Amino acid sequence: MDQSIIDKQPYGRFHRKLFVLSSGGPFLDGYILSIIAVAMVGASDELRLTSFDEGLVGAAALVGVLVGGLVFGPVTDRVGRQLMYTIDLIALIVASALALVVTDAWQLIAVRFLAGIAIGADHPIATALLAEWLPSHRRGRTMGALVGTWFIGASVSYGVGYVFSVFAGPDAWRWVLASAAVPGIVFLLARIGTPESPRWLLRHNRRDDAREALKTAFGRYPSEEELNQLAETEPPQSARMRDLFTGGYLGRTLFAGGFWACQVAPAFAIWTFYPVVLGAYGFEQGDTALLWSLIVSLVTLAGCYPCLRWVDTLGRRPVLIWTFVAVAASMTVLGLFPGMAMGLAIVMFVVNALALGGGNTLQYIYPTELFPTHIRGTAMGVASSISRIGAAAGTYLLPIGLDHLGLGPTMLAGGAIALAGCLISVAWAPETKGLALHETAAVGPRPVAKATSGVR
Major place of localization (predicted)? Predict the structure, then answer.
């Protein structure tokens, strides 16, 4: 089939703007989920948190992401991407500001949970909207780069936390948590006026609205032939969550949620308690630990960039498998030799961070490619929710594991989870590079992409 009007478009100003706007969700995700590590010391002292309470505080936002994805993934498939694109940020801003009035542990847990719901809602909304506007030859690297903004958000949070800790002290932890409202407001205002996905509009028999959306994005109305060609790939169809668990989509749902969970379960546990974990290997505590956390976060971000090209040249499948291998190997070494010299520990943390960054680029690529438009938001929401089950469990169990099992066994457990993700990927990961979105989402044998489609 000939390329649609969307696939024929060069990657231009509209796509770059939409990428920046869509990056608000992952940026705030990384910021909010990482900033708790900065605020935990002050909150723990003032609210007298136990290790049990700290585990709940660390996991609350992740559980909220789970709920938000399950609830709002189907909603965005029913009411549209553009409307929910702004509403979820309003909820996130309010939840962040509520941190200023927290006076008890349960209130902090509740505020983190509400912020997580807003984040979970943005996963299916922003990723579905961006994927449905991208031409096939730039979809892999652009969706992968969206994950990279998570690490930018995390890095910024550590930098903000360091500034607060130096100039305001640990008593400023409420303002540290509330600071997420500032970028939230910026992204909210910038997102106003974003056009709806024409793919979604055609699925809902809104042909004239699809024509207007294409005019807003590309500066001209599509011809009838171009609109008909796009409409052929997006026949009207209602969204049903049960479609994710029937026929050929059940395996895809399990794969998308499974590999994602195996990536984030050990990663989020370490990211949430980086100052504690690094301190266990001999790194300095206090403000210096925040700088180490910032450095590791930047290294993780650096790991994303070579993989952004490799997913379109080498392919999605090998990038996913080999990054899992590197994560499992580095965590196994950290677990087998917890008393290692600091220099070797640094090397292992660098390998771990680079591999995590590279592998995480697939988190927004596979779930958006493997499902059709009418259930793409639902699929993304379900996959992110499955992943957060693992992330919440890992985050909750890490401080308990350090207290009761020790450093070595806790790191070995993380390596075992990464190995499980590698096995899942070997068994189920498909190759989708260079294919049009309706081709990657089709159940059955996939066409082979042209050799040049992944390197334009």
Answer: membrane
| Residue 271 resides in a domain | yes
Its domain, for residue 43, covers 5-440
Q: Which DSSP symbol is given to 297?
A: H
Judged against a pLDDT cut of 50, whether residue 452 lies above it is answered with no
pLDDT at residue 21, rounded to an integer? 92
pLDDT at 243: 82
Task: Quote the tokens at residue 65.
Answer: 């992401």
Residue 60 tokens, joined: 């609350």
Structural domain contains residue 295: yes
How far CA 20 is from CA of 17, 130, 364, in Å, comes to 5, 10, 15
Is residue 284 situated within a structural domain? yes
The pTM score is 0.80
Start-to-end Cα distance in the chain: 19
Q: Is residue 44 part of a domain?
A: yes
Q: Which of 329, 336, 346 is nearest to 281 (CA)?
A: 346
Nearest to 384 by CA among 156, 74, 80, 148: 74
CATH code for the domain of 63? 1.20.1250.20
Residue 223 φ then ψ, to 5°: -70, 165
Q: What phi and psi, each to the nearest 5 degrees, are found at residue 401?
A: -65, -40
- The tens digit of pLDDT for each residue in 345-377 reads 778 888 988 998 899 999 999 999 999 988 898
Rounded distance between C-alpha atoms, residue 453 and residue 456, angstroms: 6
> What are the angstrom distances between the C-alpha of 211 and each of 60, 98, 125, 199, 206?
42, 41, 21, 11, 9
CB 90 within 8 A of CB 125: no
Residue 93 one-letter amino acid:
I
